Amino acid sequence: MARTWSNNEENANQASLGSHLTRNATEAKRKWLITGVSSGFGNEMTKQLLEKGDTVIGTVRNTNKVEELIKKYPDTFDCEILDVTDLERIHSFIPEMFEKHGKIDVVVNNAGYGLFGAAEELDYANIQKILDTNLTAPIMIIHDSLPYLRKQGGGRIIQLSSYGGQVAFPANSMYHATKFGIEGFCESVAQEVAKYNIGITIVEPGGARTEFRYGSAHVANLMPEYDHVHGFLNMLDPSKGLAPGDPAKMAARMIESVDIEPAPLRQVYGSQALAATIQRLEERVADYKTQTELAASTDVVE
User: Which pTM was predicted?
Assistant: First the structure.
């Protein structure tokens, strides 16, 4: 997907969008595979992409919330039923989509949800479901897409994570486990496939006004012993204040990211999210720097 920009074009784009580079209007339209397009970022990305003429292969568990898009864009919106926890279906679905559409330029792992509750409050079903949805499914989608992206000469993968992939809070342990995990997977794979012109971008949004927070979040069976970490209940209640992030703007930044060369490994959306991430990383580095003697004490001395 690499392209050469004229100085005038690059300067104009950078002036208007900072580090974001936008496509020339005459450039060929792209094909996007996006999981979870019935709501949230996936829905917002789909609407923006269809509006500008790109093709979207969008997965949903049912079509109730996308009927209007199906009617409005019969030629460019391929709405497909997929439960991402059905791993056997993923293994056949990805080849089917590449064969059906000939080429897919961008694969977006968007489907996911939040699970709130202290570790002891979670049952095995809670744990397995979020692992399947937020971690195993996106790993398998990337795994099964790579042969096609490699053989077609490249492409992009956008992996929805969260600043919760860098910063952990109490009563969110399994969500953080999936986000820390998928970020490590993507960071490793990005190094493996860069030579094939496949770029991977991990997106780390902060709080946004989507159904992730106000509709699809799952809450464990809460115990009074953990009332001291149940502050998230206020966060999930829109009457207590709305999240600062604009999902339409965040979706637009994700779309623009595929025009940045080389692919940015990470993008953080939201001022609060970026500040919290920087603070936590600085704290982590400062702690590591106190461990020089400890680390050296375990070396083999010849």
Answer: 0.87
